[in-house]
Design goal:
Order of helices and strands: HEEEEHEHHHHHHHHHHEHHEHH
Distance between the termini: 53 Å
Radius of gyration: 23 Å
Strand content: 5-15%
Structural class: alpha+beta
Number of domains: 2
Number of helices: 16
Helix content: 55-70%
Amino acid sequence: MESLTLFKNYKERKLFFFILLLVFIFNIYIEFLNYKNITKNEISQVNGTILNIYKKDNYDVLKIKTKDFTFFTSTQEKIQIKLFQDIQLYIVTKEITFFSFLQNFYTKSFNIRIIPNTIEDKQKVHKYIESQHKNNDISSLYNALFLASPLTVQVRQLASEFGISHLIAISGFHLGIISLVLYFIIHSLYKKIHQKFCPYRNKKFDITLMIALVLLSYLIFIDIPPSLLRAFVMFIFALFMLRNNIQLISFETLFIISVLIIAFFPKLLFSLSLWFSITGVFYIFLFIKYFKNLNKYFLFVLFNFWLYLAINPITHYFFATTTLEQLYSPLLTILFSLFYPLSFLLHIFNFGGILDDYIIKSLSLSINSIEVFTPSWFFVVYIIISLISITQRNIFILLNILFICYNIWLFSFIV
């Protein structure tokens, strides 16, 4: 059966985007009310939870999440603060603009006080993972992989030098692995129930629906990281489209999901992790469009290398760290597909420390790195060529030539 399109005509498309625009305006208005509420006085008292602590020489920078917003502040106060602690503090609001409010602003603060709080489930899991490792860097790695917690400076630097930051930051890649594992588990449990009590139901759809509920719970549990939110919305959208025989893998679908997320969560318009996630899916769709007829085993190997090289010009526009070891990234991505579910199972049964010796050796590696940014003019040209490649095969060939030449140029600085 031929796949249907999401919209029957231009009128339906226009109505859909008009409704999304109204949703966006409504949510922006809600954010504006929150902004006016916090800035009505020059100094405001707020309660929040510490999401991250950035250690500096003479002070700490804190990332704090309140009920209505997230912000950054610095402190030199000599108090014992830890991740996920609840705190009360006073912040200076007179220089906060609405634009900066939407971007998770930075402001001065004082009189930080720790609020005694009951240990929440996320904190319990965090401590459970931490208890399985003697090395703080390793426990931060696993907490980042499973709970989207912050990394230590050393692990973050090593991930950047190996070009595997995308593997540690929870995203659609992780959601795909989790979904696959859940499918096999739920299928084995549901198979007999389905045969005995409801053989008339669509078994695959039921399993996928159960997976969606588990993923939603997990998404909320780890405080809705933007990249994982994009992947989850795409998962739900895919479920709806497959159920209604609507074409799934299309650039229009990706665009709709992107504007859908921004309409409901306008602050994510400024989330770099969300845009990196969308960019990754965009190049995956490009790859599928032009290489889908090749041998599937060859595709499996080619995919990770092609995707890495294609995204490099965009990644290096924002992050300049360049090493020869980054060329291992495609291989490490393939190995990660096995490592991630294995390490998750090991932690469930309290054997998470088994692989620590190997990771410690990796953390002790000395890697020669330099900083090379993608030139702004090339970044703009590359984006335009990528977009035109959606419909023009000849331009897609040019895109491949461009990123091959770019990567030769990039790594020539360190050879």
